[in-house]
Write a structure and sequence with these properties.
Layout (H helix, E strand, L loop, with lengths): L16 H15 L1 H24 L17 H4 L2 H28 L6 H30 L5 H33 L5 H31 L1
Family: Belongs to the peroxisomal membrane protein PXMP2/4 family.
Membrane topology: Multi-pass membrane protein
Keywords: Membrane, Transmembrane, Transmembrane helix
């Protein structure tokens, strides 16, 4: 006699801890997209700067001579620049990205076909990503101490094209990989991970270069 096991409902299935976290994150992304993206951007941008400082050896030190009985303070862990970039991610980067892609989705809503997908990618590459990178460079220039509009504009002109070249190469590859090999619920975390990794690499490389230039000038 064959033994038949009854189907197990989704609620009864045992989920792994990462799967539960992913499900909760996607639920928040669906119910509160703006808030979720803002918090995510704030955390990742701040963490990216923190790790870049640690990896490049450029972490800010406290002024004054440290004493043996000094206790670890919040400033020893998170400096002003990390905090500013976290605020940038929360108040500017996250909401901006949400708004831009919401507009894109509304423009192409209920439109299907390979031509539409190609046009959507083209708009992303030529309009949305340049806006995102321009705002990021302007914010970075301001955070590093530039205040005059001419200084900020010069900084943007100097750095925008190299960043866009890398973006134009990486974005289609990443998007194609996600569409072919990943389930849709994994797309947003995957894109966040790729963006975080590339940003960390670029930031660390720039800080190491700046540190070496400073050491040579001394």
């Amino acid at each position: 006699m064959a033994v038949h096991s009854r189907p197990v409902s989704i609620k009864e299935r045992t989920l792994s801890f990462p799967s539960i976290l992913l499900a909760l994150y996607n639920l928040q992304l669906y119910t509160h997209p703006l808030r979720t993206k803002a918090i995510t951007a704030g955390i990742l941008t701040g963490l990216q700067e923190f790790l870049a400082q640690e990896l490049s050896g450029t972490k800010s030190k406290r002024k004054g001579k440290a004493k043996e009985d000094d206790k670890l303070t919040l400033y020893d862990v998170i400096d002003e620049r990390v905090a500013k970039l976290a605020l940038y991610g929360f108040f500017i980067s996250g909401p901006l990205n949400h708004g831009l892609f919401e507009i894109l989705n509304r423009i192409f809503k209920n439109r299907t076909g390979s031509g539409v997908k190609f046009l959507q990618i083209l708009v992303t590459l030529l309009i949305i990503l340049p806006i995102q990178n321009t705002v990021y460079l302007a914010a970075m220039a301001y955070i590093t101490g530039m205040r005059a509009p001419e200084q900020i504009l010069t900084s943007i002109k100097k750095s925008l094209l190299p960043i866009m070249k890398m973006t134009w190469i990486v974005f289609p590859i990443v998007q194609t990989f996600a569409q072919k090999f990943l389930d849709p619920p994994l797309w947003v975390p995957f894109f966040n991970l790729v963006g975080f990794s590339l940003g960390l690499y670029a930031s660390t490389k720039a800080k190491i270069k700046q540190r070496k230039l400073s050491e040579d000038d001394q």
